[in-house]
């Protein structure tokens, strides 16, 4: 049977949006959940998990993090991952620790978990220029370096600030070539089906995520030759996916608001080819130049992304403003399912305090120079947004 865009869309939606399960199982099945601190209307990790975890509410990942046996780390972006993914990234560096790193590791090893400011009592408040060109405390930079090397792990967060603890579980001894093979297949599975060109571009992030692994440039070709990756061509674009048949079944009669970093959205090249219009994340675009909105979320109807929504939750009043890149559906089922998704989103985002008394993950410390992202412009509330 000839491969078509419809087949690619069906597989992408059906494979990624699997039947909701437990939080632990969803993270294990996804293999990686990208994180982002912007909370307009919720953080990316929560927006991604809400479609894949039963009765998920914003903040559940933070609340249950310590019991999930998951890690924060970098794959093709920064995010959350099960240990089955984390062990493929380590060991990263075998070089000798600096004097500062040795000192910090010794101090952290005497604590169950430690907040960066607790190190100031030992090491002072010296600042350094960070990778963004701003300033960070030297202690924080050293903690981040030890975390990158796999010697420390994120134990949780306090008002959005990472808490660190020693890594107690040893790295599994996996042969480097096998680690690379599994990482390539993992990324291919998360984003499948993916243009060959996009997969090769995503693998370039392994230069940071797994620098000790060699052969990234030729890995896709080798796995296609071995049959571990399958492929096909549509409209002159070569797609690849882990071996096996594409899922070809009718998708649910359901509307979904997708996160900008959802696996279905992540590769913009694939997005435009599969759904016929260019999606752009515009949180850092000057307001006057935005076309979709500060935090526009793609609007999925069945297996087609037909537009976007901007959602604002202010003073516990939810405002949903849709926009359409294609002709707006006039089917009664679309209106019914759109309203059902709004209600699901209302329950997901309902205010509630976590165990430590906070209500989320502040933006500070996660962006260049520790600056908060700009606040979204207010959107008018709409009793019936589909009438517009």
In a few lines, what is going on in this structure?
The chain is α+β, with helices and mostly antiparallel strands. 34% of the residues lie in helices and 19% in strands.
Description:
This protein is α+β, with helices and mostly antiparallel strands. It folds into three domains: 5-70 and 180-242, no CATH class; 99-166, Orthogonal Bundle (Arc Repressor Mutant, subunit A), CATH 1.10.10; 255-387, no CATH class. Helix content is 34%, strand content 19%. The strands form five sheets. The chain has a four-stranded antiparallel sheet. The protein has a three-stranded antiparallel sheet with strand order 1-3-2. Helix 6 (99-109) crosses helix 8 (138-148). Mean pLDDT is 88; it is low at 128-136 and 353-388.
Which structural class best describes the helix and strand composition? alpha+beta
Q: Which segments are poorly predicted (pLDDT under 50) over 5 or more consecutive residues?
A: 128-136, 353-388
Largest sheet: 4 strands, antiparallel
* Assembly status: single chain
Helix content: 25-40%
Topology as a string of helices (H) and strands (E): HHEHHEEHHHEEHEEHEHHHEEEHEEEH
The share of residues in extended strands comes to 15-25%
| Beginning-to-end CA distance, first to last residue | 41 Å
Round the mean pLDDT to the nearest integer and report it: 88
> Cα-atom Rg, whole angstroms?
22 Å
Number of strands: 14
């Amino acid at each position: 049977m000839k491969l078509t865009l419809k087949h690619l869309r069906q597989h992408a939606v059906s494979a990624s949006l699997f039947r909701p399960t437990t939080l632990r199982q969803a993270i294990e099945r996804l293999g990686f959940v990208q994180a982002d601190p912007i909370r307009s209307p919720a953080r990316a990790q929560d927006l991604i998990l809400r479609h894949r975890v039963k009765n998920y509410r914003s903040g559940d990942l933070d609340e249950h993090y310590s019991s999930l046996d998951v890690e924060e780390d970098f794959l093709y972006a920064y995010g959350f991952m099960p240990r089955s993914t984390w062990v493929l990234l380590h060991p990263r560096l075998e070089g000798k620790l600096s004097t500062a790193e040795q000192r910090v590791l010794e101090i952290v090893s005497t604590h169950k978990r430690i907040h960066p400011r607790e190190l100031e009592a030992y090491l002072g408040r010296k600042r350094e220029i960070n990778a963004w060109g701003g300033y960070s405390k030297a202690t924080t930079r050293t903690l981040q370096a030890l975390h990158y090397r796999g010697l420390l792990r994120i134990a949780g967060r306090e008002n959005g600030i990472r808490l660190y603890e020693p890594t107690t579980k040893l790295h599994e001894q996996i042969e480097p070539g096998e680690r690379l093979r599994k990482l390539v297949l993992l990324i291919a599975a998360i984003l499948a089906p993916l243009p060959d060109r996009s997969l090769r571009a995503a693998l370039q992030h392994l230069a940071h995520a797994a620098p000790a692994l060699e052969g990234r440039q030729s890995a896709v070709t080798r796995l296609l030759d071995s049959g571990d990756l399958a492929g096909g061509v549509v409209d002159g674009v070569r797609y690849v996916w882990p071996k096996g048949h594409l899922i070809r079944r009718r998708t649910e009669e359901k509307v979904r608001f997708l996160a900008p970093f959802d696996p279905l959205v992540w590769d913009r090249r694939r997005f435009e080819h599969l759904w016929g219009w260019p999606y752009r994340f515009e949180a850092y675009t000057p307001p006057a130049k935005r076309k979709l909105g500060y935090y526009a979320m793609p609007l999925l109807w069945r297996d087609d992304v037909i537009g976007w929504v901007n959602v604002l939750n202010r003073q516990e009043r939810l405002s949903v403003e849709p926009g359409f890149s294609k002709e707006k559906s006039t089917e009664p089922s679309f209106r019914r399912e759109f309203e059902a998704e709004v209600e699901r989103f209302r329950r997901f985002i309902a205010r509630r305090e976590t165990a430590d008394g906070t209500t989320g993950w502040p933006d500070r410390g996660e962006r260049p120079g520790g600056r908060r992202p700009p606040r979204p412009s207010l959107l008018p509330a709409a009793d019936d947004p589909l009438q517009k």
